[in-house]
Structure formats: structure tokens, C-alpha cells
TrEMBL record:
Keywords, comma-separated and alphabetical: Acyltransferase, Transferase
Family per similarity comment: Belongs to the acetyltransferase family. RimJ subfamily.
Native source organism of the sequence: Streptomyces durmitorensis
PANTHER family: [RIBOSOMAL PROTEIN US5]-ALANINE N-ACETYLTRANSFERASE, GNAT FAMILY, PUTATIVE (AFU_ORTHOLOGUE AFUA_3G00765)-RELATED-RELATED
Name recorded for this polypeptide: GNAT family N-acetyltransferase
Classification via PROSITE patterns: GNAT
Amino acid sequence: MERSSSVRLVRWSEGDFELLVACNSAEMTAHLGGPETHEQLVSRHRRYLGLERGQMFRIVLDGSTVGVIGYWETSWQGESTWETGWSVLPGFQGRGIAASAARLVVEEARAAGRHPRLHAFPSADHAASNGVCRKAGFTQGGEHDFEYPKGHWMRCNDWSVDLPLSAARTPSGEHPPSS
């Protein structure tokens, strides 16, 4: 049952470190090379807080934090683009929350401008994350090998969605600042 009207995104903040800890179980990281060390989580949290191009969010459902999602700048096939990824806590999976959050993050990336596409690269054998991409309106572009994390090779699907650049762009090509 999808409950998109009650799913919202809240910008990542200093107090969100414990969410990274909660998402770091063997179950939650099985398709990502396994759990990270405490030091790696601290580093990830700092990267999320200092992200200059993109934004990380807590996924909130009816006032409860249920996961994490975001978008960030990456290089794909020799070009800069947006990438997204997410984690939804086990007790909230299977309810359409990740797909709703993914649709919201598409709108965030579209509003940020800068890139005409947003990509997601779930493991090819991760049926749930590939389903999120499909339900959120992404188009599959084939399978590719990725090294993530460093030293761990995985087969991923390249899903993407077009982000038509807004007519509200300034002559310099940049979007006006959002409030």
C-alpha cells in the first residue's frame, strides 16, 4: 500500500548520525558490500553534512524517521550527472515508501538544476531497489560493473530519469537560488 501523501523529506542534519548506524546492519548493506566501520560511518555523516552539490535527506513517514535518501553529483560515462540512492529501515519496507521518497528526490534534483538526468545504480540482483526505480518512473539503461565500496565489484542496473531544465534559468545557465 503506497502512502506517498504522508512521506516527506527532511534535510540531513547533525542529529541524523544514528540513522546511519540503524541502516548499517548486515541485512541493510547486503547489496552494498556489507556494514561499514564506525569510522566509515562518521566519515559518511560528515560527507552528507558537507555536500555542496546535492542533498541528503531523512525519509519521514507520519512523523517517524524511516530511512535515508539523497542525490549527489557523480561522473558517469565521462559526464557529470546526479546520482541517487536510499535505504528504508526493515520495519517500513514493502509499503511503497522508498518509491514515494524517490519521486520526491527526483523533484529535488530537478529543482536544483545543473544536470539533465538523475541515475540510480542498484545491484542487478536487488529486486526491491530495482522495483523502486521502476515505480518511481526511472527507465532502465542496462547492466554495468561497479566497484563499490572500493575493492568490492558488483553488477548494477543503470536506471535514470530525465530532469528537463527549468525555463526559470538565468542567462548564466544557473537556477536562481531557492528559498
